[in-house]
Amino acid sequence: MRRFFLGNFDFEHQLASEVYAASGGATPALNAIFASCWIGLAEEDDLLFLPGSVAPDFVSQLSEAGLPRVELTNQWPTREQAAELEFVPWGWSGAVKRIAADNGFQFESPDLSAVQAVNARTFSFACEQEWGLALPGSCQVHDLAELETAVRQLQQQEADPENTWVVKANFSMSARERMLGRGMQITEQMRGWVAKRFAQGQPLFVEPWVKRTAEVGLQFFIPKEDEPQWMGLALLLSDERGQYRGSRITVDVETLREWQPAIEVGQRVALRAQAAGYFGPLGIDAMQFSDEHGEQRWRPIQDVNARYTMGRLARGFSRFLQPHQAASWLHFPWKESYGICFSNWLRCVSEQGGSGTRLIATSPDQIDGQTVRLVTVLLISETADQLCQAETELMRAVSELAETTG
Question: Does the predicted TM-score (pTM) go above 0.90?
Fold first, then answer.
């Protein structure tokens, strides 16, 4: 059956809105920018909902590069057409379920209370606490007084009283819905931020800020009845702020062996999510970090996402690789001030690079005539060593372009 992919990439905001009656929900720009990311999972003739228009040659270029020829659409199908389509959202919220039902799509969604429960940070926090995996000093707080106490206790157990810490919302993703603090000070900006969320009935979570050395996305699929399925691992690539900048799709046997303890914990999380009534895609971010003594430590449950993830979409590109090839799927901010469209710039970079590397633009240059602010590229190399070098060179080229254009 052909599929209709809807990218409600503001999913966590939708959940917070529905749980706490808070402001949030649809972010058309965000959902348009990321719509083409579904290409990693799409098959020939699948439909990708993109709220805007793009140049028609974008789909042709994807097909010429060996990726599926999909249909980008900004229109809802008729009920007759929808009855022949399987509806696939980024994540199941009440608003998305109503869209599926009202338009007559084929779909099966998990219980929404289970979706909310597993995506909430209270779920991952409970797993960490019960299994003895929590970062020292991390805690859940419900008001400003508890936050001040948590920060004071966190600093008392640190060798450096000016150590950095972070406070996170119950529904958060990537580097959004969190604030960094330092030492004992809680700034007025943070006080306003936490007060708003406490007023909505949200618990918040305080953690020490650790020095990340590696991070992976563990991918599972949870059926309604059978055992959760292990779908693979993608190495997450982030900038200095912790903002997601892509995934290394291919990992070697040694890397899988290194992360095996985290995979085993992930399987326990998947079983608990299934017991809570959730079925569907599940992504778990796991982290390796360096403590104050320089020793390597593990955090196998950094985030739990009962939805699709960028790591899962990135893994989807592996079906287009030859057995010996290695690949990454990278994300870059892009500005009109650069004076060149992304696909043309990528073509120039590709011509200057080595013969063992391919670069495929997986996002359009413009949506509704406006430059896309975040672009994606599939990077394919003949060997793992070539891939690492190509990643570094491409990231450096983007940085140099940003610097020279101001």
Answer: yes
